[in-house]
Amino acid sequence: MIFGMFCKIYLFSFIVAFSVDKGNCVILDILPGLIVSPEATHLTVKCSAATDLGITTLDNISIRKGVEQMASIVLGGSATAGTGFDTSKYTISGQLPGPSYSPTDFLQVEISDPDCTDGADYTCVIKAAHGVGPISPDPQLTQSVTVQTGSSELNMVANPDKIVFFENDVVLLTCGGKVGNPAQTWNWERQLSGSSTWEPYPDAGSITTGSLNPPNPDGPTESSLSPPTLDAVNEGDDMTPVSCTHDACNPYCERDWYKEFKDLVTTTNGVLDLKNMKRVQAGTYICHVENPGILNSELIKELVLAVHYGPELLQLNPNSVAPQQEGSSVPPITCSVDCGPVCTIAWYHKSIEPGNVVPTSNGVLKLQSITRYDAGLYICQVIHPVSASNSQSVEIDIEVNCLPSEVTISLSPVKEEYDVEEEVTITCSGGVDHSIKFQQSLSDSSDWVDYDGVTDSQPPGDGCSDKQSTALTVTIGSSSNGLSFRCIQNNNLSESITLKVKQNNHNGGCSINSFGGLVLTAMVTVVVI
């Protein structure tokens, strides 16, 4: 049969009037009286000289508790506390201004929240004189004070110390504590399983009454954890139970688990066993073992629990950017993620070369003074430091609007003068974000006109293509001398090139001018360079 027990102490209180005793020239007032009830909040001891015994001068007043001096006051001085009585528990007051005796001269000690230790013999001593000289010996008066207290600090200890017992097991239950003054009565009661009421324990023959004088307390000397350390736990998993044990304690030891030295963790028989672990449960756990009967007897063992989680909540801030002008800087892009432990964050420029790592700081992508080659797809990849396969990535596209390319024009072959009927290739180079076209100007004109029928056949590009060139081939005629060419792209002009033709006369008086000038070939070539 399993049942519970508790011990009950009946309290008694007394109402006592205050005491005033006068004798041998001394008055000793004790308030509220020589017997102080548990409900009293103050105990006052006041010492003065009798007014009807012919005292003329009063030089000193002192109050003793047993043999210890609690307080004193000398003629013309202030009341002072004795050693050990200068705490907030004691309030010392008095007056002895002199030079002659006054009925208002006194010394007083007020004791807050009196307890059984304040029960003692209190003595009032004065140094005084009357008309014929000093009074000798010093007048004094002693009164004995009893401070009643109720029971307190009750506890129950089971031996053996366990929760579950089997039928026919023997268990020794010891109820201890301060029984009060005067000593209160012990009574045992039990509450049987399934019952809601307490009843007197029937087997009075097995109860021993009297003062409890336990042997000298000792222990613990060592404590241990089994296992002493644990590997990290994945979020949602259960931890491996860890048992905290200690060697022998007398009379017993208290054993508790705390998180970070502050939060008490509910355990059974000293076993830390956390289920469905959450990331907030990661940290340092402490097993605290202490013998309540020995000051500073605590032993501490620490266990570090790590909880792995993530990566999750991967995001970019901002998650998109407007197209950027070549030469500008892209606003910083922060890649953040929630990981435990901290994940590795890396940026890659996928559009240039897969796996091309971009230098970053703390997961922040910063692109400054960008060119057309910085355009493309950027990838932020996070990798869990424990499981490399547990990774995530997020992408962002960076668009770059190119600045207009420099437009150039050149001749091939390059000569100072060209022969009539010689073929010359004129090449115009630039980007293909807009069409390239040729313009010409006659030697006797300052006007530039589009060269008829010859324009770049390429449509406008995306603004960031590689540089291209457009070439046309012409045949030199006698009237080509002084003819100038230039090319234009998006209103950007190249420098002009002027043809110089040799002027040689042929036999028969025929002139090269008879060819009628420049002859255009039937092709335009676009060459990527």
From TrEMBL:
<dbReference type="InterPro" id="IPR007110">
    <property type="entry name" value="Ig-like_dom"/>
</dbReference>
<dbReference type="GO" id="GO:0005886">
    <property type="term" value="C:plasma membrane"/>
</dbReference>
<dbReference type="GO" id="GO:0050839">
    <property type="term" value="F:cell adhesion molecule binding"/>
</dbReference>
<dbReference type="InterPro" id="IPR003598">
    <property type="entry name" value="Ig_sub2"/>
</dbReference>
<protein>
    <recommendedName>
        <fullName>Ig-like domain-containing protein</fullName>
    </recommendedName>
</protein>
<feature type="region of interest" description="Disordered">
    <location>
        <begin position="194"/>
        <end position="231"/>
    </location>
</feature>
<dbReference type="GO" id="GO:0098609">
    <property type="term" value="P:cell-cell adhesion"/>
</dbReference>
<feature type="domain" description="Ig-like">
    <location>
        <begin position="220"/>
        <end position="306"/>
    </location>
</feature>
<dbReference type="InterPro" id="IPR051275">
    <property type="entry name" value="Cell_adhesion_signaling"/>
</dbReference>
<dbReference type="GO" id="GO:0005911">
    <property type="term" value="C:cell-cell junction"/>
</dbReference>
<keyword id="KW-0472">Membrane</keyword>
<feature type="domain" description="Ig-like">
    <location>
        <begin position="311"/>
        <end position="397"/>
    </location>
</feature>
<keyword id="KW-0393">Immunoglobulin domain</keyword>
<dbReference type="InterPro" id="IPR003599">
    <property type="entry name" value="Ig_sub"/>
</dbReference>
<feature type="signal peptide">
    <location>
        <begin position="1"/>
        <end position="17"/>
    </location>
</feature>
<keyword id="KW-0732">Signal</keyword>
<keyword id="KW-1015">Disulfide bond</keyword>
<dbReference type="InterPro" id="IPR013783">
    <property type="entry name" value="Ig-like_fold"/>
</dbReference>
<dbReference type="InterPro" id="IPR036179">
    <property type="entry name" value="Ig-like_dom_sf"/>
</dbReference>
<keyword id="KW-0325">Glycoprotein</keyword>
